[in-house]
Amino acid sequence: MTDMAKGALHGIKVLDLSRVLAGPSCTQVLADLGAEVIKVERPHIGDETRHWAPPKFSDDTSAYYATINRNKKSLTVDITTPAGQTIIKQLVADSDIVVENFKVGGLKKYGLDYDSLKQDNPRLIYASLTGFGQTGPDAKRPGYDYIIQGLSGLMSITGPSDGEPHKVGVAVVDLFAGLQLTIGIQAALLARQNTGLGQHVDVALLDSALAMLANVGMNYLASDKVPPRLGNQHPNIVPYQVFAGQGDAHFILACGNDSQFGKLCGVLGVDWHSDNRFATNPQRVANRELLCDELAKQFAEQPRSYWLDVLDKAGIPCGAIHNIAEALAMPQALAREMVVDFVKQGSPVRALGSPIKLSASPVTYRTPPPQLSEHTDNTLADLGYDSEMIAKLKADGIV
User: d(Cα 145, Cα 170) in Å, to the nearest integer?
Assistant: First the structure.
């Protein structure tokens, strides 16, 4: 097998000191791309998400843990002890990347901060993911996805216009920050090719969430008007929202331009596209409530399946609203291998696949999420520890 076939990041070694979701989501992307990732966990306890069950698979792996820990090795080490710190430093000496999500300064007391570790490995890329970043007045505060969704303004624009603010259905800030950290790490790897030196990658949940505000955040910067919560409506485009067919089966209509709106009017047999209240998108935004009330009445006259068929044939963007089972069973999702089964590796775990498709160095699914401490003995042996030394470390609770 060529190195390309082994993955785009084959040969890159990652020491993963992160836990829960944001950091591990980053290291799983790196692992999927071929990097060797050693996940460091607490002896006997492991990552908190190992215990976030039910549900879990028949081998006792929690679904949450399995979400972001495939293709990794599990090493248990108590980093609060001098012997544990020695093990980590030995691993760092041969690592390209360290990923951590401790509170700012949390690893300094163990000599595992960037300034300490780069002394022995100046090529090290040290990636930190925290709630608020390494600088600023809130740097030392802990960060949680839910709280950041609130602080960032994201919840203020999510949910029904006449109800309370809502969080997104998954921890989207954690996942978005994990992707930002991945991008930062890959940029640092490229920079290292030119300079020979590593650097500190600093990503914050709050920064990531503020960047996620995208056009809605820009709407505020352009107008100084606080964006309202619009439920399933779009702040800049009308009609671009959820409607219900006959029997309250919901679907999404996404008219992104005047041409598509004209086609919609043709399907409905109306002349709204020539009405000066609705002819252009700015006019439709100004008369949003009037237009959408009329559309709702029209759509209620036929079942959802009818509308999806006629709208699709007319070239008007639309789609059903699936539950999770329906989404994962879509022929398109299956064709794109978005559900991965680890049965060939002797594991009952099924996992969501990677969306990254590379033609020459594709993502690989080499190993299922590891059992706690599954690779401790082999990892220590590779560092030169013999069986007696490993047994003593276990007896002393170090590993």
Answer: 9
Alpha carbon distance 277, 40 (integer Å): 61
CA distance 242 to 236: 15
Cα separation values, 182 from 2, 23, 27, 114, 178, Å:
24, 9, 8, 18, 6
Band (pLDDT 50/70/90 cuts) for residue 223 is very high
In terms of Cα–Cα distance, which of 353, 352, 331, 351 is closest to 343?
351
Contact 178, 22 (CB under 8 A): yes
For residue range 60-104, list pLDDT tens digits in order.
999 999 999 999 999 999 999 999 999 999 999 999 999 999 999
Q: CB under 8 Å to 38, separation ≥6 — which residues?
A: 13, 14, 15, 16, 72, 73, 75, 91, 375, 379
* Contact criterion met (CB below 8 Å) for 201 and 185: yes
Mean of the pLDDT values across residues 222-243? 93
Other beta carbons within 10 angstroms of residue 111's beta carbon come to 16
Q: What is the C-alpha to C-alpha distance for residues 124 and 242, in angstroms, rounded to an integer?
A: 48
CA distance 375 to 49: 19
For residues 282 and 90, give the distance between their C-alpha atoms in angstroms, rounded to a whole number.
62
Catalytic positions: 174
Are β-strands 97-100 and 13-16 bridged in parallel, bridged antiparallel, or unpaired? parallel
